[in-house]
C-alpha cells in the first residue's frame, strides 16, 4: 500500500470519530438564519437623480432574491416634510409609493425618520391637521404605532422612534417616556434564548455622529449634537446591559458609515441611499445600502453595497 492510500484508509477506518475533530479545526461559518437589506435616507423628491437612485437601489436588491428575504427601511423615506407644504409633502409620498410599488416585491419593515414628520418646522404649525406630525408617515408606511416589534425565527427586531419634539422647537433624538416603558416591557417578554436587533433612525451610539459636520469645535471638542445621536444613550445602555441577547443596533440618519462595538453590542450606522442628498458622496461615503446576514448563533455580518 502506498503511503497516500494508507492515510486514506486509516481516516476512513476511524470513521465519524475523526470528522467532528476535522470540522472544528476548520471552524465553519455559523448557520445562516437569513439575509436582508437595510435601506435608509432615500430622501426621495421629484428630481431625476433621486427617482433614478431609488429605482436603481430597489432593482439592485431584487436581484439578490431569494437570499435577501426582506427590506428594513431605516427612515427619511422622503426628502423632507418637517417644513414642507402639504402639497409638496403629498408629491413626495406619492412618488415614494409609486416607485416602491413598481420596483419592489419584498416585505418592507419601516422605521420613521425625522424628515418623514409633517409640519414641526412650519410657521404657523397646523396642529389641527389630522396628518400633522407623525400621523402622515404612519399612514404612508402602514404602521399603527411609531415603534413596534417583529420576529424572524431566533431573532427579534425592535423598531424604535428616535425623533421627539422639543418644547423649544425642533426635535431631539431620544425615546419618549411611554416608548421607553414599552421597550422595557418588550425586552422582558422576548425569550432569553432569542437574539435581539434594535432598529432606530437616529443612531443610539455612533462615532460618525460626531464627524457629521466635518470639524471640531473651536476649543477642540468633538461634539455630538442632540439631533445626531440618542441623547438618552446612558439610560438605554443601562437597560441593554440587562439583556446579553441584544446583539446589534442598526441606524441611518448620519449619511456616514461606521461600526462601534460597545460592551458586546454592535452599533452599525448604515450610510444613505441618497449619499449627500443626491449630490454625490457625503465625505467618503457614496450612495449605498447595507446588506446584513444574521446567523443562528447571534452573530451578524454587514456589507455596504454601492448600487450604482
Ligand atoms: Zn434623519
Describe what is shown at a glance.
This protein has 308 residues and is of the alpha/beta class.
Can you offer a commentary on this structure?
The protein has 308 residues and is α/β, with parallel strands linked by helices. The chain has one domain (34-305): Metallo-dependent phosphatases (Purple Acid Phosphatase, chain A, domain 2). It is built from 7 helices and 13 strands. The protein has helices at residues 3-14, 19-26, 48-62, 86-103, 135-141, 177-189, 233-240; strands at 32-39, 68-73, 108-110, 148-152, 155-159, 163-165, 171-173, 195-200, 246-251, 257-262, 265-270, 289-295, 300-305. It has a 6-stranded mixed β-sheet with strand order 4-5-8-9-11-10, with no helix packed on it. Helix 3 runs parallel beside helix 4. It is globular and about 50 Å long. The model is unreliable at 1-26 (pLDDT under 50). Zinc ion is lined by residues 76, 113-115, 201, 253.
- Number of continuous helical runs: 7
Distance between the termini: 59 Å
- Structural category is alpha/beta
Biggest sheet features: 6 strands, mixed
Q: How many domains make up the 3D coordinates? A: 1
Q: SSE layout and pairings?
A:
Elements: H1 3-14, H2 19-26, E1 32-39, H3 48-62, E2 68-73, H4 86-103, E3 108-110, H5 135-141, E4 148-152, E5 155-159, E6 163-165, E7 171-173, H6 177-189, E8 195-200, H7 233-240, E9 246-251, E10 257-262, E11 265-270, E12 289-295, E13 300-305
Parallel strand pairs: 1-2, 2-3, 5-8, 8-9, 9-11
Antiparallel strand pairs: 1-12, 4-5, 6-7, 10-11, 12-13
Helix pairs in contact: 3-4
Bound molecules: zinc ion (ZN).
Amino acid at each position: 500500500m502506498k503511503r497516500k492510500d494508507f492515510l486514506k484508509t486509516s481516516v476512513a477506518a476511524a470513521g465519524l470519530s475523526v470528522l467532528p475533530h476535522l470540522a472544528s479545526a476548520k471552524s465553519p461559518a455559523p448557520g445562516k438564519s437569513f439575509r436582508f437589506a437595510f435601506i435608509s435616507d432615500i430622501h426621495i423628491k421629484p428630481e431625476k437623480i433621486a427617482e433614478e437612485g431609488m429605482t436603481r437601489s430597489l432593482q439592485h436588491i431584487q436581484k439578490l432574491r431569494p437570499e435577501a428575504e426582506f427590506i428594513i427601511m431605516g427612515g427619511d423615506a422622503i426628502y423632507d416634510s418637517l417644513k414642507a407644504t402639504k402639497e409638496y409633502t403629498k408629491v413626495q409620498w406619492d412618488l415614494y409609493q409609486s416607485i416602491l410599488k413598481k420596483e419592489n416585491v419584498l416585505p418592507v419593515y419601516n422605521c420613521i425618520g425625522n424628515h418623514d414628520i409633517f409640519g414641526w418646522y412650519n410657521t404657523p404649525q397646523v396642529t389641527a391637521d389630522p396628518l400633522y406630525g407623525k400621523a402622515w408617515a404612519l399612514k404612508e408606511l402602514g404602521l399603527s404605532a411609531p415603534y413596534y416589534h417583529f420576529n424572524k425565527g431566533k431573532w427579534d427586531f425592535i423598531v424604535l422612534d428616535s425623533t421627539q419634539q422639543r418644547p423649544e422647537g425642533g426635535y431631539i433624538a431620544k425615546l419618549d417616556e411611554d416608548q421607553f416603558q414599552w421597550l422595557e416591557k418588550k425586552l422582558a417578554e422576548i425569550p432569553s434564548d432569542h437574539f435581539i436587533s434594535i432598529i432606530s433612525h437616529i443612531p443610539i451610539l455612533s462615532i460618525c455622529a460626531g464627524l457629521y459636520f466635518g470639524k471640531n469645535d473651536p476649543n477642540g471638542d468633538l461634539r455630538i449634537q442632540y439631533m445626531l445621536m440618542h441623547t438618552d444613550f446612558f439610560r438605554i445602555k443601562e437597560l441593554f446591559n440587562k439583556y446579553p441577547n441584544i446583539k446589534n443596533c442598526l441606524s441611518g440618519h448620519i449619511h456616514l458609515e461606521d461600526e462601534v462595538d460597545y460592551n458586546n453590542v454592535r452599533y452599525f450606522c448604515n450610510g444613505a441611499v441618497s449619499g449627500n442628498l443626491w449630490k454625490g458622496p457625503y465625505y467618503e461615503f457614496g450612495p449605498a445600502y447595507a446588506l446584513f446576514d444574521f446567523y443562528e448563533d447571534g452573530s451578524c455580518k454587514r456589507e455596504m453595497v454601492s448600487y450604482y
